[in-house]
Amino acid sequence: MALATTSDPTAVRRRALDAGRAAGLDAAGVTGADAFPEVARVLLERRERGLAAGMQFTYRNPARSTDPRATLPSARALVAGALGYGGPAPERPPHGVHGRVARYARGDHYERLGEALEAVAGSLRSDGWRAVVVADQNHLVDRAVAHRAGLGFYGKSSLLLLPGAGSWFVLGAVLTDAPLAPTAAEPVPDGCGPCRRCLAACPTGAIVEPGVVDARRCLAWLVQAPGEVPREHRVALGDRIYGCDECQDACPPSRVTLHPRPRPDVEGAGTGSGAWVDLLDLLSADDETLLARHGRWYLAGRDPRWLRRNALVALGNVGDGRDPAVASALRTVLDGDDDLLAAHAAWAARRLGRDDLLEGRTSAGPATADELAAPAPPPAPGAVR
To answer: What does the domain layout of the chain look like in residue ranges?
Structure first.
């Protein structure tokens, strides 16, 4: 039950949306709080097909993540918000060997989104209504809320595209029991037309059909998932250590307008902050240091070994096999007690033409032994010939 209020719902909505935009939202809209049964069916169907891989998030409990009232039983409206991050890609540092970070992970954009949504929630609360912020959680499918609120349309990449601005946005919502009228009478019409550039650009063919992504092939998921990086996708990973922007970079509206309203004063939005990470430094840093630097990224079990694993694959792709520092880093991992990391180091050594680093290793663990028994990967550009 809402607190006692005499505010006009139209004025309440206007104040809430104005508060969000003033706090940084690039787009905002309102929709009803009814469940999304069609989205629940899609989540279940794709999970049954194995397309979710080991991903949890909104796949974990579709009945919950597609029903706003599972989070706020009294909810009557949802305020969807989009905050742009984009920004031009900075040049690779001239010295050293570096791994690439996707744009969404270069700054804490979800923190800024949360602050903007809290401004919306604060406005609603000041008018006497309950309000709960939900963003990047398993509580709700953010894209579905933004789509129904009229913020954008689903692209063939499966991402939500805002008309004229593309997909470089993080999304979230405010659940409220205020009786707010929807801002969109109907969904935004499809803007992709016959374009299929995102499908062609995906390095692993993970977009298996328009709007459908197979997480088992998606590099953005594989760098987050625990366990080994599938051998068949390691070369395609290239220099990436976190995230993948290929489908967005290929999308015409996203490519032309990386950000609808540049804000160079904000970290990661227009400055390319945090776009490159020194791979050798990442491999030599201790857990505490890595968590301090990169702990806001999703790391399964908050275990930095997954970052080291990604760095080893990237090193095998873009390292120089003649560089003593690269050889030393691989040797250190091979001599360590983490068999999974040693297996990825073995792969990198073979790809860089440094089979000499693997000689005489008769006590290799099972993962490393399996790696050594597998066919050698194709030589990298920096391999010793």
So the answer is: 1-277
